[in-house]
Write a structure and sequence with these properties.
The protein is mostly beta strands. It is 0% helix and 39% strand.
Length: 71
């Protein structure tokens, strides 16, 4: 389960666990804590659209986000 927030980043809880994992705009996280949308495509990639931060893509829940910033 993926949950977006308006200022605390993205939170993820795997199906086989009760632990919640936050992804925030610090370190290797996302490029903004203000999340506008999350979309899951046919290849199970999560596309995370942020407010004023660009788009972030995660291939699976164990990989860090790939950041695409607006220029």
């Amino acid at each position: 389960m993926w949950v977006s927030t308006e200022g605390l980043g993205v939170w993820m809880m795997p199906r086989d666990s009760q632990q919640i994992h936050p992804f925030r705009a610090a370190g290797a996280g996302i490029n903004s804590n203000a999340i506008a949308t999350i979309y899951v495509d046919k290849e199970d990639r999560k596309w995370v659209g942020t407010l004023r931060g660009g788009i972030n893509i995660v291939e699976n829940s164990r990989n860090p986000f790939r950041k695409i910033s607006f220029l």
